[in-house]
Design a protein that fits this description.
With about 475 residues, this protein is of the alpha/beta class. The chain has 4 domains: about 120 residues, 3-Layer(aba) Sandwich (Rossmann fold), CATH 3.40.50.2300; about 170 residues, P-loop containing nucleotide triphosphate hydrolases (Rossmann fold), CATH 3.40.50.300; about 80 residues, Helicase, Ruva Protein, domain 3 (Orthogonal Bundle), CATH 1.10.8; about 60 residues, Homeodomain-like (Arc Repressor Mutant, subunit A, Orthogonal Bundle), CATH 1.10.10.60. The protein has a 5-stranded parallel beta sheet with strand order 2-1-3-4-5, sandwiched between helices. A 5-stranded parallel beta sheet has the order 9-10-13-8-14. β3, α3 and β4 form a beta-alpha-beta unit.
């Protein structure tokens, strides 16, 4: 450990204060102590620590008050100061509030020494990350690029600003938006701009895993934990140790699994299926969903307490149709990417091609745009620009199809039909309009791909069970 890293410990209980100072000093940090928030504030100004470890409940000035003072602009303190708050059982709400105010992390009492050491190590690595983040900020100001994300529009600039602020911290983030808007790209950017960037980034699609296997996939299992468990399996948490885990399509996770996830988030420990003991986990958890979170809670797909825990910050990705001014720079970035991927030398985009792209409403968002550019690059000759001849023959027709299937007058449902029959007709007509493209149909219908597959299975069973 670099002995130049200074840690200020603020705690009103004398024995706890002494014990923490001895523990942290033993790990190679330089330590200073304070007995309440006011003394902590004074010593922070005089000593300029890299990390502050503070209790929440103290006389004169509590931990929240100290955190707010440390976060004020113009104090002369290190802008990269990391604040770790200590909270007693039953004070988790205060700890979450502290995270929203800018705390780096929190730890429940009694203190878990291993967990505290990990937090301090991560906070120390954050100092180096901030240097790289400043380089990223400069690039963003000059080119409108943040990591692999591009855009100069007001909505995207606001998102970039939020990513810059929260990437270095350890807070959970809920990323929302329609399918194809780039939610996983946001998660990867948060990871790449954090102190965890050298550790794994693991993304798991909760909608793509059978309900019977999802707990094993996420938490892991021991050999013999269930029928077919022939060997030990590391779950996503273990694979992402020290790094970042993205839980995509969170609303499709079974409610029982959500309860277990909530416990892991609260205690930073998990028990694999079939295991007798718990293990520590050091993973930053991000979540993404194309559902409106409050609606998912209302219809029983998402636990409200899990939403509360994960939604410390919300990044809402806008659909492409709401920031079309970014499309030209997005196309340029995708064109460069596809030239490298396919070893091509496409020279640019013809004005007529760009006009066609700008006139389309992109119901599949950035993912659909990427697929369109990739197809065009493969068809285009080296040295030539992309033009309208490189678009698919049916390009633009899906917009008409999506309008038709959303018009009740197009689906022939007679009075007296059941709601289920009307739903079936709508789904089947949408599949016809998309050429049996289930992913595209699910996007138009506003349901997950898993839900669409389940509906089609139901219709298949109904046909099998009907009398001949």
């Amino acid at each position: 450990m670099d002995s130049s890293v200074k840690v200020l410990i603020v705690e009103d209980e004398p024995h706890a204060l002494t014990g923490l100072a001895e523990l942290i000093s033993g790990w190679g940090y330089r330590t200073e102590t304070a007995r309440d928030g006011i003394e902590g504030w004074e010593k922070a100004l005089a000593w300029d620590p890299a990390i502050v470890v503070t209790d929440l409940k103290m006389p004169r000035m509590d931990g929240i008050g100290l955190l707010m003072k440390l976060s004020e602009d113009g104090t002369g303190l290190n802008a990269n100061l990391a604040v770790v708050v200590l909270t007693a059982m039953g004070s988790i709400d205060l700890a979450v509030e502290a995270m929203k105010l800018g705390a780096y992390d929190f730890l429940q009492k009694p203190i878990d020494a291993t967990r505290l050491r990990t937090i301090l190590a991560n906070a120390t690595r954050q100092r180096d990350t901030e240097i790289e983040l400043e380089v990223a900020r400069r690039r963003l100001r000059e080119t409108g690029v943040l990591g692999a994300m591009v855009g100069n529009s007001k909505p995207m600039r606001a998102i970039f600003s939020l990513i810059e602020q929260i990437a270095p911290s350890n807070v959970s983030v809920l990323i929302t938006g329609e399918s194809g808007t780039g939610k996983e790209l946001v998660a990867r950017t948060l990871h790449e701009l954090s102190s965890r960037k050298s550790r794994p980034f693991v993304a798991v699609n909760c909608a793509a895993i059978p309900e019977t296997l999802i707990e094993s996939e996420i938490f892991g299992h021991e050999k013999g934990a269930f029928t077919g468990a022939l060997e030990r399996r590391a779950g996503c948490f273990e694979l992402a140790e020290g790094g970042t885990l993205l839980l995509d399509e969170l609303g499709e996770m079974p409610v029982g699994t959500q309860a277990k996830l909530l416990r892991v988030l609260g205690e930073r420990k998990l028990r694999k299926l079939g295991a007798r003991t718990e293990q520590e986990v050091d993973v930053r958890v991000l979540a993404a969903t194309n559902r409106e979170p409050t609606e998912a809670v209302a219809d029983g797909h998402l636990r409200s307490d899990l939403l509360y825990r994960l939604n410390v910050f919300n990044i809402a990705m806008p659909p492409l149709r709401e920031h079309m001014e970014d499309l030209p720079v997005m196309v340029d970035a995708m064109l460069n990417e596809m030239n490298m991927k396919h070893s091509r030398r496409v020279s640019g985009v013809a004005p007529s091609m760009l006009d066609r792209l700008m006139a389309y409403d992109w119901p599949g968002n950035a993912r659909e745009l990427r697929n369109t550019v990739e197809r065009a690059v493969i068809l285009c000759s080296d040295g030539a620009p992309l033009d309208v001849g490189h678009l698919s023959p049916g390009f633009g027709k899906s917009r008409i199809a999506s309008t038709q299937v959303s018009d009740p007058g197009v689906v022939p449902v007679r009075v007296g039909s059941t709601v289920n029959e009307g739903e079936r007709l709508l789904i089947m007509r949408t599949l016809e309009a998309t050429g049996q493209n289930k992913t595209r149909a699910a996007e138009i219908l506003g349901v997950s791909l898993k839900t669409l597959h389940n509906k089609l299975k139901e219709y298949g069973r109904a046909r099998e069970e009907s009398p001949s």
